[in-house]
What we know:
Layout: H1 12-44, H2 51-66, H3 72-91, E1 105-109, E2 116-120
Antiparallel strand pairs: 1-2
Amino acid sequence: MLSYNPFMPNTKSAKKALRGSLRKRKYNLIWKTKVKRLVKSLKSKKTKVTPKDLSELQKALDKASKKRAIHKNKANRLKSRYAKIFFDNVSAKPKPKAAATKSRATKTKNRTTGKTRKKENAS
Length: 123
């Protein structure tokens, strides 16, 4: 089966370089698709992301950067981004409701001494 090749090398060394770059491209795409698949699975699990899912993604990003399929700074940036999202979801606690009535007495701070005192509102 013939396949279309958009590159047309002119010299013998350029033909060899093209073969090598196509092999490297195929290898790099394996790692990139693996990372993309894990990111997509994390995004689809909006409700519950387990620490195991996060560690799998971090592991894949580390290996991809080690094999130089992606840059190491990009791998670290993505790991940091998804860890932040994960830990924000884990530590998110519902905020308590504010009190319905407010007290008329408010606390003010004396600028010179730093002590607080109660002050009654005139209204």
